[in-house]
Amino acid sequence: MRVKPKEFDLNGRKLVLRNAEEDEAEMLLKYLKQVYAETPFLIQEPDEITFTIDDEKKYIKENNDSDSDLLLIGMLDGKHVGNCSLMGNHARRLKHRTSLGIVLYLEYTGLGIGKIMIEEVCKIAKENGIEQVELEVAANNRNAISLYEKLGFEKVGTLPNNMKYADGTYTDVHFMVKYL
Predict the structure, then answer these.
(1) How many domains does the chain have?
(2) What is the mean pLDDT of the chain?
């Protein structure tokens, strides 16, 4: 889904949310590998990111051409800080729902960027007829859960032992929903 770029003032700094472009595929692959290495809260290890640049270009194009999927990137003073996405459903019975994903580089968490990104994609979802935004979050990701709750998401379920780490420990995942 294509949207107009939007600027936000973040304590005197310029945050721009806009669609990713195909010529940014290499940058976005590097981003994925870095953010997957920075946190235990995501579902894959960095070495599991096996997309090629052509795969990523195709993914970006498909999102930009979609009427239900959205890939927004955040640029703070011209520097990429993270992504936020919506993944819609195509079945008529599910079209009222969308799934949200968000990942920022670790150094940009806690600055209010995630809050702005989530508010913006929820606004876009509502403008496009979506009634509920859903997400999954690692149960031990307390900062993210706190942010989601402040933004109106509520826990609707938990899947035990959703992820198993290399050290043999597990973490649950919470399912959260925001009704628009």
Answers:
(1) 1
(2) 96
What pLDDT, on the 0 to 100 scale, is given for residue 179?
98
Residue 145 lies in a domain: no
Global model pTM greater than 0.85: yes
Q: To which H or E segment does residue 143 belong?
A: helix 142-150
CATH number of the domain to which 40 belongs? 3.40.630.30
Q: Given this model, what pLDDT does residue 62 score?
A: 97
Q: What is the DSSP letter of 68?
A: S
E-assigned strand segments in the chain: 6-10, 13-19, 70-76, 79-88, 97-104, 132-138, 154-164, 170-179
* Enclosing domain of residue 117: 6-134
pLDDT for 133 = 98
Residue 83, in any domain of the structure: yes
